[in-house]
Inverse folding.
């Protein structure tokens, strides 16, 4: 599932022209993060993890 974030980055402005039209300026920033998992190995190569994480409750020390 992707995560979509919309954030206001400034103030909204209304600009009216001489012929009666208006323009709205709404500064926003849109970030979309994909659900794709990617890792970087210690040697610099990138790859995808294999399988699902083990949530059985065992601790690895």
């Amino acid at each position: 599932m992707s995560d979509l974030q919309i954030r206001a980055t400034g103030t909204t402005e209304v600009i009216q022209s001489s012929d009666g039209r208006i323009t709205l300026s709404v500064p926003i920033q849109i970030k979309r993060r994909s659900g794709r998992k990617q890792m970087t190995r210690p040697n610099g190569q990138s790859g995808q993890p294999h399988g699902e994480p083990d949530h059985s409750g065992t601790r690895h020390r």
Summary: Strands lie at 3-8, 13-16, 22-25, 28-33, 39-40, 46-47.
